[in-house]
Amino acid sequence: GAVFAAMGDRDRTRAWRIQFAAVNACDGSNWRDMQGGQVFYNGDVARAVVSQPDFDADVAAMWPALKAFAGPVRVVDGTCDYTDPGPTVWPNVVDDLRDGRLTVVDGAGHSLWMDKPAEFVAAARAALADATR
């Protein structure tokens, strides 16, 4: 709101990083490690995307398309990811795929590379190596 708009660029960037880490990380205390700023997310763009008339149908069509995909699908997810805490949904999704595998990083949120950078790199490398065999 008005307070955010009244802040200088440095304070506005810090506030955005704290908010971003609070939502996307398992432990928001590492907000200082977050690089960049609001260039990574624009609420106006997100609202425009989800307001498209076919958005719900397009999202619903994604699941059958993913299930029909014959290639390898590798998912790396954190246990604190706000989109699938636990995770609870992705295990069922990968079980329905021809060649799906899930790697779960304990104690990581949606931006798991922020919470567990070494574990994320290891999981991503293993997933890429496995998918290209």
Explain what this protein looks like in three dimensions.
The radius of gyration is 18 Å and the shape is globular. The protein has helices at residues 2-6, 9-24, 43-50, 55-68, 90-95, 112-115, 117-131, and strands at 73-78, 100-105. A two-stranded parallel sheet has the order 1-2. The protein has 133 residues and is mainly alpha-helical. The chain contains seven helices and two strands; from the N terminus they run ααααβαβαα. It is 51% helix and 9% strand. The N and C termini lie far apart (50 Å).
- How much strand content do the residues show? 5-15%
Helix content: 40-55%
Report Rg: 18 Å
Query: What is the approximate shape?
Result: globular
- SS-derived structural category: mainly alpha
Number of DSSP helices?
7
User: Which strand order do you get reading across the main beta sheet?
Assistant: 1-2
How far apart are the first and last residues' alpha carbons, in Å? 50 Å
| Number of DSSP-assigned strands | 2
Observed structural traits:
7 helices, 133 residues, 9% strand, two-stranded parallel sheet, mainly alpha
List the helices and strands and how they pair.
Layout lengths: L1 H5 L2 H16 L18 H8 L4 H14 L4 E6 L11 H6 L4 E6 L6 H4 L1 H15 L2
Parallel strand pairs: 1-2
